[in-house]
Amino acid sequence: MRTVLVTGSAGFIGFHLSQLLLQDGFRVIGFDGMTDYYDVRLKERRHQILLQNEHFSCKTGMLEDHDALHALCMEHKPDVIVHLAAQAGVRYSLENPRAYINSNIVGTFNVMECARELGVDHLLMASTSSAYGANTEMPFIETQKADTQLTIYAATKKANENMAHSYAHLWDLPTTMFRFFTVYGPWGRPDMALFKFTKGITDGTPIDIYNHGDMYRDFTYVTDLARGIRMLIDTLQCARKARRISPRVTLSARSRRIVWSISAIRPRCACSTSSRPSRRNSARKQSGTIWICSRATFRPPGPMRPC
Ligand SMILES: NC(=O)c1ccc[n+]([C@@H]2O[C@H](COP(=O)([O-])OP(=O)(O)OC[C@H]3O[C@@H](n4cnc5c(N)ncnc54)[C@H](O)[C@@H]3O)[C@@H](O)[C@H]2O)c1
């Protein structure tokens, strides 16, 4: 039975990926700091669900604690590491940039060091569509230069991409970085738009609509994303035999204007206490926000079959 270390296993994407890997017969070791960026009870509940499977175990710890992470790696010797733990969120990086440096730069370096020491078959790590920053050519594609990040969050993720490239080169470490486009689905993050809109509608509180609603995003359904990561775990094993390191992969689905999203939620909200239309605050674009974030198709780097 192959073993995968999933960092951020109590997080939104880590939870879904861990579920899928367990279904597919992997042993999954979770590692998560259970940070209070959003309600920790949601993270605990996700871990409780995963722990119902005998092939899942987890440890609470921060990525910055190299000794804790290293001990876990040496104990379980994972074949593959999927690194999803991070201080996420574009807007919070304006308030607390230090959290991003600690988790995303120092933390990711510690993960890469463990991967190098273990000589894992494959290291897969999360980046973000925010890495495209001030690029204006649409739709975004992986071959574009991405050197103009607009937030510290995006800058730390782009730094991770560069760090990963150097480790892949120096240590022959098969590595794939993903640039995720706004992920949605069950057990999602309460800080993200769809959940904030839903809460505003059910509570009858105003919903902030940045850039006066003139914002477009690609959304990716979380199960599609988890399935894509799952398939790429094996895809690169083939590539490694050919001593080729995969390019970065962008996973994406479809664009939606933000105000349409609110309208789409509303008719389905049976729990709403109010029959009135949701109250909307038309607000300026926040600094650092990309007003259009679009990737039309998903193009895997190679065959999307287990090999
Ligand atoms: N959800 C999206 O739309 C989206 C878009 C682009 C990129 N991403 C990236 O995907 C990854 C997963 O995102 P998510 O939506 O599941 O976020 P999430 O916040 O739900 O999950 C991240 C998990 O990492 C843990 N964590 C944070 N800092 C840590 C640290 N220093 N040490 C240990 N654990 C720590 C948190 O407790 C959390 O459970 C992140 O790297 C994020 O930047 C997500």
Salient structural properties:
307 residues; alpha/beta; Rossmann fold; four-stranded mixed sheet; 9 helices; disordered C terminus; binds nicotinamide-adenine-dinucleotide
Q: SSE layout and pairings?
A:
Blueprint (H helix, E strand, L loop, with lengths): L2 E5 L4 H12 L3 E6 L7 H12 L4 E5 L5 H11 L3 E4 L8 H4 L1 H22 L3 E7 L23 H20 L3 E6 L2 E2 L8 H11 L3 E3 L6 E6 H20 L7 E3 L2 E4 H8 L14 E3 L9 E2 L14
Bound molecules: nicotinamide-adenine-dinucleotide.
The site of nicotinamide-adenine-dinucleotide (NAD) has 27 residues, from helix 1, helix 5 and strand 5.
The molecules bound to the chains, other than polymers, are: nicotinamide-adenine-dinucleotide
Give the CATH architecture of one domain: 3-Layer(aba) Sandwich
Instruction: Give the overall shape, derived from the CA principal axes.
Output: globular
Q: Could you tell me the number of beta strands? A: 13
- The whole-number mean of residue pLDDT values reads 84
Number of helices: 9
In sequence order, what are the helices and strands, one letter per element? EHEHEHEHHEHEEHEEHEEHEE
Going across the major beta sheet, what is the strand order?
A: 3-2-1-4-5-6-10
How far is it from the N-terminal to the C-terminal residue, by CA?
16 Å
Helicity range: 25-40%
Radius of gyration: 19 Å
Q: What fold name goes in the CATH topology slot of one domain?
A: Rossmann fold
Helix/strand structural class: alpha/beta
Strand proportion, as a percent range, falls in: 15-25%
Largest sheet: 7 strands, parallel
- CATH class descriptor of one domain: Alpha Beta
CATH superfamily of one domain: NAD(P)-binding Rossmann-like Domain
pLDDT below 50 for ≥5 consecutive residues: which ranges? 238-249, 296-307
